[in-house]
Fold this protein.
Amino acid sequence: MLENVKITREQTIFLILIGALGNIVYTHTWIDPDTDRAAWVASLAGILLVIPFAVWILYLGKHQPGGTIFDILESGLGKIPCAVVSILYILINIALAVTILNMFTELIKTFFLIYTPRWLIILVMVLISILLLSNGIKVLARTVEILTVIGLLNFFFSFIFAFPNYIHPEYVIPIFDTSLLEFIKGTLFLSGTASECLLLLMVIVRFIPDPGKHYMWVVIGLAACSVIFSLAILVIIAMLSPELATRIAFGAVNAAKIIKVGEFIRGLEVFIFGTYQFIALGKTTFYLYCSWTAAKKMFNNWKPGIQLFLLAVMIFVPSLWLNSYNKAYNWAVLLGYIVLPFSIFVLLLASISIMLIKKRTGSTLK
Amino acid sequence: MNTRMLLLACTMLISLVLPGCWDYAEYEDFVQIIGMGMDYNNETQEITLTILYQPTEGKSSSQPSSATKSGGQQITHSATDKTFIGAATRLQEVVHKKLFYGYVKTVVISEEAAKYNMMDAIDLFDRSPSIHSSAYLAITSGKAADVIKTIDPYQTISSAEKIHDLIYFAPNTGLAYVVTINTFKEMLAIGGWEATVPHIIAIAAKSQKEETKSSIHEQLMLNEERTGAHRVSGLAAFKGDKFVGWLDEKESRGFSWITGKKIQYYTVSEPSSVGGTDEILYYAVTDSNNKINVQMENVTPVIYVDVKATAVLRKFSRDKSSEFLSLEEISIAEQKLADHIRSDVDAALNKGQKELQSDIFGFGFAVFRESPPLWKNEYEAKWTDIFPDIPVHVTIDVSIPNTGTNIKRLLIK
Amino acid sequence: MKHLRNPCHFKKLSAQIPAASLANTKENLNALNQLTTESNAIAEELNQISQQLMSPGLGEANYKNIRVFSTADQNFGFITSILGKSIGLITGKYDILEGKAQAGVAYIESITNQELVSHQILEPLLKGKADVNTTFDTILTLIQAKFIAVPNVKTTNRMEQVIENLLIGNTALFINGINTALIIDSRKIEKRSLEKPDNEGTVLSSLEAFIEDIEINCSMIIKRLPIPNLHFELFSVGILSKTKVKLIWIEGIANAGIVAEARRRIQKIDIDTVDGIGILSELIEDTPLSIFPKFQQTQRPDLVAKALANGQFAVLCNNSPFAFLAPIAFWDNFKSMDDYAELTITACYLRLGRIIAYAFSVIISPLYLAFVTYNQIIVPQSLAVTIAAGREGVPFPSGVELLLMTFGMTIIREAALRIPGSVGYFIGTLAAIVIGQAAVAAGYVSASIIIVVAISEISSFAVATTRITYTSRLINYSFIILAGFLGMFGLICGIVIIFWHLSSLESFGVPYLYPFIPFDLEGMKDTFIRMRLSVLKKRLRILAPFNRVRIGNDK
């Protein structure tokens, strides 16, 4: 992997966008008992709340250009604390990968490939993730850019057909029917699940050229993500009514099933499924990449191919063992409460490292 | 390095998959069910499931399509069992291909099933992705099996498609509107809004009374057939998930006016006791709108319904006073139509509010939209009790923008 | 450089070891140098001798260092011994300049313009009169300056060059007594006249096409870009064929790094013959295994001129009517010269139509297969009944049927391409309509498959270059297999893999999906649509990094 590859502005924006959308596309229904109709406003606010942390990571990256957060931790605190944090980081990434693979596999098995064994589907997904990683971050960033663009276009063009027959404004207005406290609870949960992008950003920051100056890229990426995701939830609520929207397992796929255009198009769930597959593939690849980077750092680049293979097996086997959508859903909700505190903890440690480094050498590292 | 990985991936993929494709299904391996019917017998607590599909064997492009005509268009089977799934399994025993439910267009539910056993079916349809939740629902007063097996010998479409089209074009009569399984679920789930479903009747042909060709084997009835026709005649009203009563034609129209369903039909002004048919005006309604407002007066919510209708005049009375249709005459015509609509609306409100005591119009939902905390804290619990006494004020506004192709009468000289 | 002040003192080495004094060292160094030079000279002599003794491989080693002989007979004898007796060598000895000297003329009959030789070389020499006071030494310059009416004359004293030039079609003139020969340009090359391009038809643009002669091809480009910045560089590629290859770029616009890379790759070529631009391109492109074309091969000089103005470079090869354009992006396969000749909106429509047709051709038959065998729920019900009825009695499963028909179309197309004459058109039509119809009627395939395969095949031709048609066929096969095994899931996996591959391709350092990814707003104005010319102001950043402005610049 080349160390001097830099990713462009558009690639950063799309990477952050995909980074924040992960388990959230399945677990956003968790907040519906709290926020009811205002779920889309909660998601708008929730994802925007992650922006300060993302900018914090870039600010930290400014002090160690070309290095990840783990490099900062290592130079500041030493190898052992860094190793401990890395192990936690790898475990969280693997858990997130397991949950999203499971939920996506159940999506396929419920709607489309009912009798195909799940190990085949998970195997294909993991193989394609490994394939996408085999060429370096430059190609991965380009691929993710194009897939995100196509996935988003696909998603919104399919839902264009929902106008005007299936969108009911009375399901959306009035917007707020819960108390402020419950709304804030929902928003915080969504911030938690969306902070998966912080996990990705901790590793990607070394490829961003001049991170201190270009924090706007991350801001734009997260803002775009919040707008897009809240629009998606708004459309789902407007189509299905908020009461039904809280019950569904697979967000937009359920909603797309009811779109009917004349007699010819009887449900566009197959195209929305494409977007979900892009998201699942992209996220699995990124979880694998983040774990791999942390592992490579821990073991000092010893045989990276074997490490990748081991990590892939570590994702594959628990996915098979978990074997259930509902269990995966509960895990994903639990992880949603864990990721943000963990990220804040790591960032605090990194800031302390920077202060320690400054004190030690009298100047910032170059 | 990456070519190696690609090769590896491909090899693994292909070697694992070649032994068999699990979900591979050709069209000739299954039958496409397009209509379903559900009956319920409250004494024996058994469900009768009727399926309808179109056979595709023996049809190839070299044969002229006129060879398949009367009677060969659909095959209907019924099975009876304690549960829905049990009945479906029995049916699979007799049909030689796999039953494929993805193309179901219409689901007909009998009155008794709607009274006692609706949620069984709805939950099944809801959770299983193989049945498309955009299928139309219809309630029938007799048996659903009879409705499904009725076929019109001179038309080449099956009964499910016929019912589907009848409901789809119901705005032409103003009697019903499209209720899919999804819409039904929404009406069930949303508080303050009870469900209504179109009412379908099957009429047997006169000459063939009770002559049903079918083979009966235990609890299965195979290859049923009956000639006749179908008719949309109003709506069925629900309270919760239980069927409570019918809305006849006048009341259904009133319901459509109140809830702003699309109506594009021809109607007349009220026939009055004096004057003959000369006095009746013909209208063609082109548009209808509604607005439901809720205002709190003292502690009770008062519902204000504004109904707006746009119609064009098709025939007016032969009053010999003037040839030009003056503005006064037009406003009289508007008033007459408004009176007609009002009588419909009153009939509907009477039935819905006083007799059936079920909030099919969605007034509770309007209260919720007006003030969600008030609804949640106070009214939701007691709405079914206070609904029959809620005052409803309806204002009707008719506008006739043009009088057809002529603005002067035809004077016979 | 600052000298380091070292605290510890050094003693002079020569105080300890007398042999290490400076003067001694210098002496020894000189002796060493002399020895090295002498041994170099000996080595070179040994080299020459060994080469002369080596067996004649191509005959080159034999006469590499042989000088021109002083008599014409000796020269002719030597040339005949090298070239053989049957190559058509014509030799003649003449007394020229009124007997002042004897000359010998040699040329190869089939490739030399004999009229030029007789009228412009021999006639003035035979009729001419030399000055009284011309000496023997200056006679060569005199002949060159005054008597030979051909502008391109060179002198040489090595037989190797004489023979090379004879093989090109030049004439050699020997003077008895002088060890120098004159090489006079007298080539006669058979070439065809300018014709229309066969495979790149347009409606509104120029209809000239390249031919096999590299000089005429270059002339067609020069007349379209008559500026001094248009640079040519000549290479000779191929050990046997010694093909002339020219690298063309516009200095100041093209990215110098890319041109240097191209130069490096051409110089590294090591092969025996270069038949045409096809072989040359495979030897200099990146990742030759990829199915996507990473360069453009065109017959049109106007396209080459446009590409050069954009900052790309072109390679022309002798004996090949195609030019090689690089670096290109994926979207260049959909750009035709007609786009710039039509109205803006028409051009947008046509270009979008081509891209959509290409996407269709790749995806429609796997999509059909996925819908019919795995995701039946999305098919409209009336269509479902028709498809089901059509499939009754068909013995093959849908996937096999589709693969068979697609492969069959390939066979039909290849056959129709090679059947000679008017029979070719007939067979093509016959095959497509009648055989397809008969297969449906006999019950071998279902009718919907024929339609899907026909749409797929025909749309794959609706693009601007034909090389990408085969790419779409190959991708189509792989997608059909994926869709046949895993339905829509497999198809989308295939799409992801294809995009990954496209993202990893580079054409001479330019990413293949540029300017879409990485994003360049100026470039996007001429990618999926063609905006009006007054808006297309800048060149692409990677292709022309230092001279981006097209319009409003005097350069």
Q: What stands out?
A: Residues 325-361 of chain A form the longest helix (37 residues).
